[in-house]
Amino acid sequence: MSDVNHCLSKTLVSKYGTDTLFVVEDLTGISFAEKNLSRGGSANNDLRSWAFYQLEQFLSYKARMNRSEVLKVSARYTSQRCPKCGSINKSNRHHDVHEYRCQCGYRSNDDRVGAMNIQLLGTMWTSGEERPHFEKVTGLG
User: Fold this and answer.
1) CA spacing 20 to 30 A to 97: which of 17, 37, 74, 129?
2) Are 23 and 88 contained in the same domain?
3) For residues 70 and 25, is the Cβ–Cβ distance under 8 A?
4) What is the average pLDDT value for the chain, to the nearest integer?
């Protein structure tokens, strides 16, 4: 996995060049419980042992060498928030088919929705928000 992380971080920094902001989720405390994994035996072991921290570290030092930066943002609600209307609803994400469906009519791949929200958090940070994050609104009023 160390070699995979090295190659991936090197490719990202090379592809996007200098003065790039890489935004990653803070996955501290995230576990790959059996119920969250859908692949076969050896693939599950690979996922459980994936060194997210190491990838972040490799990316960070390579980005710094290339006048770029890595921003770590909260993973909270990134896969539950609709990028069109902004509503947050856990039941909108359908893990079994990797689909996100919102009541507003927006539909997409659930990982794509997460990536779009992570990008938005990066945009919020570049616009001056010190700790960009999403909050679930639980009552209008």
Assistant:
1) 74
2) no
3) no
4) 87
